[in-house]
Amino acid sequence: MSQKILYTPHEVNELVSKEPVVLIDIRDAEQFKKGHIPNAVNIPEIFYYLSESTPGDLANMHKKFKDLFSNAGLSAEKTAIVYEDSLNNRYGGSCRGFWLLSYLGQVKSGILDGGLSAWIKAGFPVNKEISLPKTTDFSLNINSSIIATKDDVLKALHNPSIILLDDRDKAEWLGESSSPYGIDFAPRKGRIPGAKWIEWYEFMDQTLEIPAFKSKEEIQKLCAKRDIFPDDTIIIYCFKGSRASNTYIALKESGFKNLRVYFGSWNEWSRHPELPIEEGPPRE
Fold it and tell me: Helix or strand or coil: residue 43?
């Protein structure tokens, strides 16, 4: 049985009434203070934290989020539900939160589908009260099967059985900008050689009042046009792992089985001049 990932507002409301749940709001502190789901905790670092993928960098990331989730009162027997304004508002930041929790070993976790916008539209309350949860000892059980390091990606360049999927915005794919943070935020512009490209927005139905993932059939058809299929081994990258996590969820929900996120993504790859890049107009 596949893991449930996306929860409707009604499902989250029911879940909260029946069992221990930690609601994790990834928005900025200023937004959080203006109104949030009752008893939610604010962890904007889920969206902002940048990490490279060396053993030392990953160890630092493990400690950082162990401390943050411990302070949020999260433990294995509780269910973590992550949310933002909506699934496409912060480059898929709530999906990044789910991916982080899965990577760190929190099995009971999910995403509020449609985020706070859907919660409010469904008629559920928000408030400005700041919760002070009892600190726990969040335990780590690292799931290395869903992460790719820069070394893994470098090896994949010479392995035709692995697909590299770049889901960044068009300007980044074309090498016109280095990141969403600014044209020259990262030291190099371009692409990882041999990567296929599907802009992350394409996995979302933008015509809806509150954007949501397209259907399984639509996503499989979209990928098939790029010769990407559910049984393929795929490494997804963006700039820092948020959009890649969004696409990870879209593909996972659509029956794709062998998925990894290159969490360091272009932020890391571009900062190592020894790593190859493709510049100029894409070959395809």
Answer: coil
Q: Do residues 150 and 241 share a domain?
A: yes
User: Cα–Cα distances in Å, from 167 out to 93, 109, 198, 212, 246?
Assistant: 14, 24, 5, 17, 10
> Which CATH number fits the domain that encloses residue 101?
3.40.250.10
Reported as a single tens digit per residue, the pLDDT across 213-257 is 999 999 999 999 999 999 999 999 999 999 999 999 999 999 999
* Same structural domain, 218 and 157: yes
- Are 129 and 165 in the same domain? no
Q: How far apart are the first and last CA of the chain?
A: 38
Q: Are 141 and 104 in contact (CB under 8 A)?
A: yes
Is residue 239 domain-shared with residue 204, that is, in the same domain?
yes
pTM of the model: 0.95
Domain that holds residue 259: 145-269
- What separation in angstroms does the CA of 179 have from each of 5, 184, 191? 28, 7, 12
What's the pLDDT tens digit per position in 125-141?
999 999 899 999 999 99
Picking from 142, 171, 200, the residue at the C-terminal end of a domain is 142
pLDDT digits (tens, 9 = 90+) for 35-75: 999 999 999 999 999 999 999 999 999 999 999 999 999 99
Which tokens belong to 234?
């795929």
CA–CA gap between residue 45 and residue 28 (Å, rounded): 9
